[in-house]
Write a structure and sequence with these properties.
- The protein is α/β, with parallel strands linked by helices.
- The chain folds into 2 domains: 178 residues, Rossmann fold, CATH 3.40.50.2000; 152 residues, Rossmann fold (3-Layer(aba) Sandwich), CATH 3.40.50.
- It is built from 12 helices and 14 strands.
- The strands form 3 sheets. A 6-stranded parallel beta sheet has the order 2-1-3-4-5-8, with helices on both faces.
- α3 packs parallel to α4, α6 crosses α10 and α8 packs across α11.
Amino acid sequence: MRKRKLLFVAPFFPSFIRSDIRLLQEDYLVRINTYPWQHKSLAPLFFFLQFFSVLFGILRTDAVLISFGGYWSVWPVLFGKLLGKKTLIVLHGTDCASIPELGYGSLRIPLLKWACGLSYRHASALVPVSESLAGTELDFDPTVLHRFQGIRHHFPAITTSIHSVHNGFDPERWPFEHFENKAPDSFLAVMSAAQYRLKGGDLIATVAKLCPNFTFSIVGMDAPGTTHPANLHFLGKVSQEELARRYRQHRYYLQLSSFEGFGCALAEAMLSGCIPIGSSVNHIPRIIGSNGLVLEKKDPDKLCRLIDQLVNLKDPEKWALNARRRIVENYSLASRKQKLTQLLNGHA
């Protein structure tokens, strides 16, 4: 039986998009359409060039999957609808949000919101990575004034079907070795410099001062220009292999986002045996389940109390093993592949 042909459109390739490509290549002949859309001044040129590349590419494809809504999703969706091709848009978070006080969300930019709205309206289906991206209310961070977020809030007239499909993870890529290899009282977080406030870096810096006996590390960014306590370490950008090693070295993980489409780093850390504290936003509490603690408000004193509770857990190794089991049993690659394939084949 011949493999069906899939046009895969993405603006860039973080690990979760590369994972989707590997999954789909098992059943599809995947042709990738991409341009360096991060160069915003060149977006009109890429929009023009993509018109022709998608037009010719879609004639030789059976279905289209677009990762992230944006300028790059307009032509694939419109040509897909014109030619009767199944066209899915996988939504990851920024394409469902507008939080100007945090400088976050594609939908805070009028022209980009127009492109997303047009794409969402004419796609065959929208596939957010968590149910919260359809609609959620944020009450964790008091500085967030735009509390209502999600597709249904920003585009209430859209009738396109929405099917949530959670991210999936490969346990072999995020191994858990011996618990005794993890440094006691060590906390890790992952974020870029642009995500510092969004992911709670400011909260971690404050708490590090209040908890001088604990060690805090942030992967993904260099130290900001402001002063920070000596027990807070910035480890810079690292490879996936180095990130996995850092997870294995740390006992606890902090996912203190004010908004989070899913929480891939949280799931990776839990696979690596890190016991988490997460904020009470979006899908984070569901990922953690009963295998960690949830911070209800962005408050340093409350976080300090949770940290004290965490480091005094009885049998922390059992908690670490249960955290890994939680991800293995609930967020498998096989489940994601099955659901995406069903949607692409029109069986959902």
